[in-house]
Amino acid sequence: MTLRRDRDALVVIGWREWVSLPELGIAALKAKVDTGARTSALHAFDVQLHGKRVRFHVHPHQRDDDASVAAEAEFVEHRLVRNSSGDTELRPVVRTLVELGGHRFAAELTLTNRSLLGFRMLLGREALRRRFAVDPGGSYRCGRPQGHPQPRVRAP
To answer: What CA–CA distance (Å, rounded) separates 47 from 71?
Structure first.
């Protein structure tokens, strides 16, 4: 067994975090941290493949289908992905930068319609590996973007 040095310590994140996708023009997006998902997934629609690039639109805010961002990213491949219902879907995979907890790293994202799901993005274990440790009881441990207030805590 190899012991980790302090400079190698993983950043602890919660089960949900704010992320930024700077190359896609998305400054703040709530992501669900999902260690059960191998690859990260991003809500996307109007997806069009143009050679080695993919153009698509994203609704970056939960429960808001009016605001959208036009984005373009490097196309990696099409990949069969099993969703939470157990169905397989052929999805385009893109590579882009993700910012979280003071770290900036390249990650692969599958593009799919997540409009009926609670989060517009899932952050899968490939993106988390060797960077982050997950506190399943914590939320937004890396902070919030400016302009997004702390949620009110409900009394038990």
So the answer is: 10
CA 110 to centroid of chain Cα atoms: 10
DSSP strands (E only) in the chain? 11-21, 26-34, 40-43, 45-50, 53-58, 69-82, 88-100, 103-112, 121-124, 132-139
Question: Which residue, 6, 29, 5, is CA-closest to 17?
Answer: 29
Which residue type does 141 have?
R
Report CA-CA distances (Å) from 90 to 70, 81, 111: 22, 6, 10
pLDDT (tens digit, 0 to 9) for every residue of the chain, 156 residues total? 555 555 568 899 999 999 999 999 999 999 999 998 999 999 999 999 999 999 999 988 877 677 788 999 999 999 999 877 788 999 999 999 999 988 999 999 999 988 777 799 999 999 999 999 999 999 999 987 755 544 444 444
CA–CA distances in Å: residue 45 to residues 42, 78, 115, 118, 138: 10, 16, 9, 16, 30
Spatial separation of the C-alpha atoms in residues 108 and 153, rounded to whole Å:
34
What homologous superfamily is domain 9-130 in, according to CATH? Acid Proteases (2.40.70.10)
